[in-house]
């Protein structure tokens, strides 16, 4: 009796655990474009296009490799609309009673597979460096789950940038070399790919079905198969990696990508593997083509942050996305969905997100994330926004970044202090402020940068929680040294700003 082998839209890797378990001569692969997955959040049209085009091309390559595949397109008339319903339909068609699956990257879909009335065997997704048990073992008995220590274990485990037992370059972490402000200009541009026939068909379908969603579909240049993703990796290593480290935290008004790799989506849907990406970076370092701060900084993002975030998501369980330690309840302002705002940094990050389904890490963390945290936006609403609008967003990686790192809504499981800053940080790392309708130097008054006002509002309303945090004590001392009238003015103006924002006035 044949079995069904489920391959999801972010499981496009030939070494997938369910495929390894399957028998090419008798088992049948099921791949399904379904309404439920394309609409559970209002995904950016580019994200839907990336996934559907990559699914179709991956299915073709599996077929050429001799697999039997039952593939459902989104507009097939018999399409049952959800992963479980498609499995049931295919089980009836083939007589299969058993399904081999690879663990999905979201609790929502894991639960759906578990409650699907078929025998579904879920295999761990081992396209990661740390398994669930590796992470649980590491976490056991620790008071704080800090990324840095986890990362060192991952360096030892993979041997990446290791010289015997010691880290290459004599240090584990070169982050202090990776904080250069915005460079005057950037010589590099990412590589884009002309849509082929398959991608064009998907673009037509997505345009017809999802054109009212937030996000611009055209031009579409993301890689949609492994060969293209590998070309994007090579392009990054050859042209951008050497400057990646130094400018990792910089933001430029006129350049959306700086020296970032844009590889996250390809990694997350399985077109690239984390180890091969890190090995390409390590090779460039060993050839002497890139400095240690770039190689280490990049590898840390992948075997450190990426693996750690996944570990936290699965370690903490399905309730993680509901956490709201700071009890923030404000609705997400309309300017996250493209309404006008005078805050140049925010409007540029959102416009870029709308155009490319991409913004780099510091824009996500220190602009849109920082603003939401300062303003007290409901972290779950913000989580749904990040999950919708970014090309690389899947809950296992998006939620810990949003709920934990960016919003401190997990109460400090990931971050030892909230990532909040006034306009100072943004003006140091970017050139936005020169073109803003607000004045970053103004601390009060009609022109005062809202980040400056809201920073103190945040500190004031969370004094009980953070005053005792040694990393924040200095800021409380600064606040307390302010003249009482000035303190009162700042808080009043911050509240006034929030009231106007809540009333949907242009701020
Ligand atoms: P680069 O700057 O070139 O970094 C290299 C790679 O490192 C990335 O491709 C990515 O795989 C990995 N990486 C870097 N930082 C992180 C991180 N914090 N967590 C996990 N991996 C990391 N990343 C996602 O992949 N999906 C998300 O949905 C996502 N949501 C985020 C939400 C918020 C609020 C924040 C602050 C960060 C989020 N990130 C997410 C992490 C990070 O912003 C993106 O991985 C990165 O911007 C992707 O662009 P890039 O490929 O050019 O990355
Ligand atoms: C994100 C996504 C989208 C938009 N569409 C599909 C789809 O039609 N079929 C599919 O198998 N997967 C899709 N995906 C990816 C899934 O949502 C993803 O597997 C889960 O969110 C778990 O990470
Ligand atoms: Fe952003 Fe404030 Fe600078 Fe304007 S002045 S760009 S709001 S940090």
What does this structure look like?
This protein has 507 residues and is mainly α. The chain has three domains: 4-123, HUPs (Rossmann fold, 3-Layer(aba) Sandwich); 132-190 and 240-310, Serine Threonine Protein Phosphatase 5, Tetratricopeptide repeat (Alpha Horseshoe), CATH 1.25.40; 334-502, DNA Cyclobutane Dipyrimidine Photolyase, subunit A, domain 3 (Orthogonal Bundle), CATH 1.10.579.10. Helices cover 49% and strands 5% of the residues. It has 22 helices and seven strands. It has helices at 17-21, 35-39, 45-64, 83-94, 107-114, 132-139, 147-158, 197-210, 226-239, 241-244, 264-269, 274-286, 292-316, 344-356, 361-375, 379-389, 395-406, 423-429, 450-461, 463-466, 473-481, 484-502; strands at residues 4-6, 28-32, 68-72, 98-102, 119-123, 162-163, 166-167. A five-stranded parallel sheet has the order 3-2-1-4-5, sandwiched between helices. Strands 6-7 form a two-stranded antiparallel ribbon. A hairpin with a 2-residue loop joins strand 6 and strand 7. The radius of gyration is 23 Å and the shape is globular. The N and C termini lie far apart (63 Å). The model has no long low-confidence stretch (mean pLDDT 97). Bound molecules: flavin-adenine dinucleotide, ligand DLZ and iron/sulfur cluster (SF4).
């Amino acid at each position: 009796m044949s079995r069904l082998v489920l391959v999801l839209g972010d499981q496009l890797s030939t070494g997938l655990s369910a495929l390894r378990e399957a028998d090419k001569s008798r088992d049948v692969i099921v791949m399904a474009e379904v309404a439920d997955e394309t609409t559970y959040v209002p995904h950016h049209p580019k994200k839907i296009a990336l996934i559907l085009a990559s699914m179709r091309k991956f299915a073709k390559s599996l077929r050429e490799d001799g697999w039997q595949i039952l593939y459902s397109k989104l507009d097939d008339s018999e399409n049952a609309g959800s992963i479980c319903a498609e499995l049931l339909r295919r089980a009836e068609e083939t007589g299969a009673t058993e399904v081999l699956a690879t663990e999905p990257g979201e609790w929502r879909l894991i639960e759906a597979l578990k409650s699907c009335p078929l025998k579904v065997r879920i295999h761990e997704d081992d396209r990661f460096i740390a398994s669930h048990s590796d992470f649980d073992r590491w976490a056991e008995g620790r008071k704080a789950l800090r990324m840095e220590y986890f990362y060192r274990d991952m360096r030892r485990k993979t041997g990446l940038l290791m010289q015997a037992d010691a880290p290459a370059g004599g240090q584990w972490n070169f982050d202090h070399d990776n904080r250069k402000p915005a460079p005057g200009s950037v010589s590099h541009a990412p590589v884009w790919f002309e849509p082929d026939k398959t991608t064009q068909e998907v673009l037509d379908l997505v345009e017809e079905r999802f054109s009212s969603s937030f996000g611009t579909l055209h031009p579409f240049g993301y890689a949609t198969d492994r060969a293209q993703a590998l070309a994007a990796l090579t392009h990054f290593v050859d042209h951008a990696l050497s400057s990646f480290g130094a400018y990792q935290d910089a933001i430029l008004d006129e350049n959306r990508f700086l020296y970032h790799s844009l590889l996250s989506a390809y990694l997350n849907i399985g077109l690239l593997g984390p180890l091969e990406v890190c090995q390409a970076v390590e090779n460039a370092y060993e050839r002497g083509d890139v400095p240690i701060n770039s190689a280490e900084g990049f590898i840390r993002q992948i075997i450190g942050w990426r693996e750690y975030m996944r570990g936290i998501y699965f370690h903490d369980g399905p309730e993680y996305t509901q956490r709201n330690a700071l009890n923030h309840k404000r609705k997400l302002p309309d300017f996250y969905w493209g309404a006008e705002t005078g805050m140049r940094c925010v409007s540029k990050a959102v416009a870029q997100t709308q155009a490319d389904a991409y913004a780099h890490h510091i824009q996500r963390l220190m602009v849109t994330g920082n603003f939401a945290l300062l303003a007290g936006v409901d972290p779950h609403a913000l989580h749904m926004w990040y999950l919708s609008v970014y090309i690389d967003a899947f809950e296992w990686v998006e939620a810990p970044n949003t709920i934990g790192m960016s919003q401190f809504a997990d109460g400090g499981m990931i971050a030892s202090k909230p990532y909040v800053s006034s306009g100072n940080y943004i003006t140091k790392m970017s050139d936005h402020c020169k073109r803003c309708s607000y004045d970053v130097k103004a601390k009060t008054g009609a022109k005062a940068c809202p980040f400056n006002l809201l920073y103190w509002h945040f500190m004031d309303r969370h004094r009980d929680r953070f005053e005792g945090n040694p990393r924040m004590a200095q800021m409380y001392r600064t606040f307390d040294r302010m003249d009482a009238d000035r303190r009162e003015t700042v808080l009043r103006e911050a509240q006034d700003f929030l009231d106007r924002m809540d009333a949907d006035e242009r701020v």
